[in-house]
Every structure is written in structure tokens, then in C-alpha cells.
Design brief:
Radius of gyration: 23 Å
InterPro entries: P-loop_NTPase (IPR027417), Small_GTPase_ARF (IPR024156), SRP_receptor_beta_su (IPR019009)
Main location: endoplasmic reticulum
Transmembrane segments: 15-34
Shape: globular
Protein name: Signal recognition particle receptor subunit beta
CATH class of the largest domain: Alpha Beta
Strand order of the largest sheet: 2-3-1-4-5-8
CATH architecture of the largest domain: 3-Layer(aba) Sandwich
Helix content: 25-40%
Number of domains: 2
Number of strands: 8
Distance between the termini: 43 Å
Subcellular location: Endoplasmic reticulum membrane
Length: 249
């Protein structure tokens, strides 16, 4: 039918030439549509468009999820420890922006961790939330180590933001102390040479970097990682909002 329409518009074209025009038009339309989806959707296709909120139980992940999705000034629902992921599309930029990210809040319980790790393949960025008043360094260190050793995240150089919540509480640890404690924990895990099985059943050593013999530095990891303090109670999550906005650039 399309070929007949082209021949009616350009009578001089034979069937083969008209068919070539139709095919070319379809290809061009497909390219335009794909480009439009990319511009309206966000990040590079190789990085996915999902922001994962992960971390130990009780750090405020679900409260952060609703704060980002509902926006500043919205009444947040009462939250409890999540038993399943929460997912919602949201725009970290101005209200009228068509650029959106998929936000996923993953449960912090250890039993849910293997399933959480399976969600990393579509990650554009990872928000690792901790409780400054109760950092749970050992638990946090294990989860952060698993993520920083993930081959897919390392290959795509997915950015991390370690956000220390409840920084306003009395007795909360300083950002420097939390960063130092995490560094020590991760260094111990590196020297212990924890292992996993790959998809073919081979035992491989978990590595954050290719050279795990010497002391690592956060700034030298394949995945760029930043540390910041936030306070959901006070509504101070500007560093997290900025992190999400930068994923759209």
C-alpha cells in the first residue's frame, strides 16, 4: 500500500525504486524516534536509567524514596522496614522537565541482598544510605564491598553517593570518621580475599580494583564515589538531589 502511494506521488518511479523510498523513510523515522526517546529519557543507554537506593536496615531508604518521588513539602507516608522493592519514575530537575529516572528503593535485610544485587545491571547511579547515629559499619561495609566489586558496575563506572543520614542527631559520627571506618572495613575485606562463583561456576576473588595488594584509595576506584551528610528529618537532601540531576547531563 505504501509503495502504491509513493508511485502515485512520483509516477516516474518503478516498483523497486518506490519500495526503496518506503524502506528509507521507515529507517529515518525509526532513527528520529529513538533519538527523541533518548533525549526525553535521560542517560546513556549503556548506563540504564535506574537510581538504586541501598544500604543497611533503618537508614531511612524508604523515607528518602518517598521524599524524592513526592517532592519537597509533601506529606510523607509513615514508613516501616521494606520487605520488597519500591519503584517509581521521578524527575530530579524542574517540575516541567520531561527527563526522568527510575528510582528503586531496595530492602536492606541480608536475606534480600542477593535479589538486590541482581538489580544493578540497569543502574545509572547508586545512593548508598547510612545512619550517622548507628553506622553499622560491618553491615554497610559488606554491602558496599559487594557493589564496588561488581564487574558490571566497574566496567560502566557507575557513580556512587554515600549519604550519611541523621547527621543532626546527638552522638552522630562525623563524615570523616564514617569514611575512615568504611575504608578500614573495605581494606580488611580486600586482604581477606573474599570469593564468589562466576556464571560458569569458576571461583574468583572479589576485587574493587585490579591491584588489591596495596592500600586502596576511594578516589582511585573504577566507580567514582562521593561522601556527604544529609538529614531527612530536616529536609536537607540537596546533595542527593544534585547527584540525581547530574545523572541526566
Amino acid at each position: 500500500m505504501l509503495v502504491s502511494i509513493v508511485q502515485a506521488i512520483i509516477p516516474s518511479l518503478d516498483y523497486t525504486s518506490a519500495l526503496a523510498v518506503v524502506v528509507l523513510a521507515i529507517v529515518l523515522l525509526a532513527m528520529v524516534a529513538f533519538k527523541a526517546l533518548q533525549q526525553g529519557g535521560v542517560v546513556s543507554p549503556s548506563s540504564g536509567n535506574t537510581v538504586l537506593i541501598v544500604g543497611p536496615m533503618g537508614s531511612g531508604k524508604t523515607a528518602l524514596f518517598y521524599r524524592l518521588v513526592l517532592g519537597e513539602g509533601s506529606k510523607l507516608p509513615k514508613t516501616v522496614t521494606s520487605q520488597a522493592p519500591n519503584a517509581e519514575e521521578f524527575s530530579p530537575c524542574e517540575e516541567k522537565s520531561s527527563k526522568k529516572l527510575q528510582l528503586v528503593d531496595l530492602p536492606g535485610h541480608d536475606s534480600q541482598w542477593p535479589a538486590a544485587m541482581e538489580r544493578t545491571s540497569d543502574a545509572a547511579g547508586i545512593i548508598f544510605l547510612m545512619d550517622s547515629s548507628k553506622p553499622q559499619t560491618t553491615v554497610a561495609g559488606q554491602k558496599l564491598f559487594d557493589l564496588l566489586c561488581d564487574p558490571g558496575l566497574k566496567k560502566r563506572k557507575i557513580p556512587f553517593l554515600v549519604a550519611c543520614n541523621k547527621s543532626e542527631e546527638e552522638g552522630a559520627k562525623s563524615l570523616d570518621d564514617i569514611q575512615d571506618d568504611l575504608h578500614a572495613d573495605l581494606q580488611d575485606r580486600t586482604e581477606f580475599k573474599d570469593t564468589i562463583e562466576d556464571t560458569e561456576g569458576n571461583t574468583i576473588v572479589k576485587k574493587m580494583t585490579e591491584d588489591d595488594e596495596s592500600d586502596f584509595k576511594f578516589e582511585e576506584l573504577p566507580c567514582p564515589i562521593k561522601f556527604t551528610t544529609v538529614s531527612l528529618k530536616k529536609g536537607d537532601i540537596a546533595p542527593i538531589e544534585k547527584f540525581c540531576q547530574e545523572l541526566l547531563r
